[in-house]
Amino acid sequence: MSPSSLKLLPLAALLTACGPESSGDTGRFGLDVVMSSAVANEVHALQVSVLTRGSSRSCTELQTTCLNSQVRREDLVILEDARGNEGRALRFTVDLAAMQGGGSQSLDVDVPVGRDYALVIEAMAVGSPSRFLGSSCNYLKVVNSGTNAPLVAAPLVLTEQACDPSIAP
Amino acid sequence: MHRHDLPSRLGALLLVVGLVAPPGLAHTLFPPPALSQLGPASPEITRAREQIDNGEFEEARRTLQAGLDAPDVTDDQLVELYRLLGLTALYLGDENQAREAYEKLLQARPDYELPRTAPPKLRALYARIKDDIRSRRVRPVTLDVDPIPDARGGAPLEVVATIQELALGARARLFYRRAGDQAYNSVDFVKDRNDKERFLAVVPAYDVPAESEPYEVEYYFEVADAAQRRLAGRGDSFQPLMFQVLPLQQAAVADAEGSSGRPWYKSPWLWVAVGAVAIGGTAGVVALSSSEDRGRVPITIRVDPSQP
Fold first, then answer.
1. Which residue has the higher pLDDT, A2 or B199?
2. Cβ B163 vs Cβ B197: under 8 Å
3. d(Cα B93, Cα B87) in Å, to the nearest integer?
4. Residue B289 to residues A82, A113, B182, B198, B238: CA-CA distances in angstroms?
5. Which residues from chain A sit within 8 angstroms of residue B302, using beta carbons?
6. Which tens digit of pLDDT belongs to each residue from B264-279?
7. B-contacting residues in A 18-77 (Cβ below 8 Å)
8. Cβ distance of A140 and B292 shorter than 8 Å
9. How far apart are the C-alpha atoms of B187 and B203, rounded to whole Å?
């Protein structure tokens, strides 16, 4: 092999390294949310939203009432669910039968990689308009595409308010 | 008589009448400006003024809201829009909206007062709102900016900052001077059109020329309100921060590396690099268009029967 060919070896190695990341390297971490029985008796759907500048927010205050009355629309990042639906808030219908029997329900939310978020899960009761039953607010220091540390989520307890928590996509 | 004598004679006549007329007549000859007739103009401002003068306050409120939502509204226009909105809200008896509007107006014009011609009822309401606003705690401005790294001279120097809760009428500026100089120059941070909290300041190239020897530049950041009170900052004029402008030689060495004798465009490495960038760029575009940079957050919900 000529010396000039040797010079090209690092470049060739660099180019062959291009390509999709391995599928096992996704940014997954668990957010285990416990819901009280009082909420479970009435909940119809869960609405998930993620706020920017999480550290500047007070989760205690955010949990008192509907999120949409406390933040601006542009504070919410665009989320995506496992089916590819996008929106500033994702709504999941609750599988009460599974949960009442001691099981659990999983929701997958894809969040833009970034730092300093707050993730809010609002429990909604069926009706027209929907009613706010309570929410769980959690600080997310970082969301990256690597392995993330598990989080302890705030429990979802009944703090019913006369407001409609719906957030348009 | 010259043709242009007529307007000047008419003007003189009006002046004489104005001076000798009784006060009541003078009042009708020179009526006070309507409450709305002050400040800068935009189509919405002009229309809202007419609507206020005609007593069409609900319509005026809608016009002003549209004016506030319009793109590229200047600070002066914003002040005028909030002034008119406050006035309209007072007339409509909407104290909450008046308070919001005047709060924004007073951030920009702390000394603003209603015209003396405003009805006493409105003036009393405005005074109460002003007292309320002054006794309330104002949300602090936050300035998030990284120190300026050492730079190469002879090129504009861009500094990006994130500023939150910047009050109307407040200015964020970068002050700088060559170490040893007495006076500071300053450049304003300008708001990004696409991101309300992202601001950019540019130090012109002629203020940081490339020289044969390195030199230091002292600087500080400051956000000040309309009354020049400092709201936030990093460093100050007495304790400035500092960065170094690298010497020409050092910059030239970096440029010269890799081009030994032959013209740069004849270097095979250049064309290899161009090819690699083209391949990498294409791959990057394909990757970006096919998948966004996201991380998945799996959430598990379960019911705790022990919790009521």
1. B199
2. yes
3. 10
4. 18, 16, 52, 25, 50
5. 32-35, 99, 103-105
6. 555 555 555 555 555 5
7. 18-20, 26-38, 40, 46, 48, 53, 56, 74
8. no
9. 7
What is the pLDDT of chain B when averaged over all its residues?
A: 74
B289 shares contact with chain A (CB less than 8 Å) = no
Q: Residues for chain B: how many in total?
A: 308
Joined tokens for residue B71: 């793109």
Q: Is B280 on the interface with A (CB under 8 A)?
A: yes
Tokens read off for B281: 């760029």
**Omega into B71 within 30° of 0, i.e. cis?**
no
CB within 8 Å of B38: residues ≥ 6 apart: B80, B83, B115
Strands of B157-164's sheet in order across: B142-145, B157-164, B198-203, B190-191
Closest CA to B301 of A110, A100, A85: A100
pTM, two decimal places: 0.37
- What's the first-to-final CA gap in chain B, in angstroms? 100
Phi, psi angles (nearest 5°) of residue A79: -110, 165
Characterise A101 by phi-psi region: left (phi > 0), alpha (psi -120 to 50), beta (else): alpha
* DSSP secondary structure, B240-308, as one string: -EEEEEEPHHHHHHHHHTT--SS-GGG-HHHHHHHHHHHHHHHHHHHHHHH---EEEEEEEEEEETT--
Q: So what's the ipTM on this one?
A: 0.72
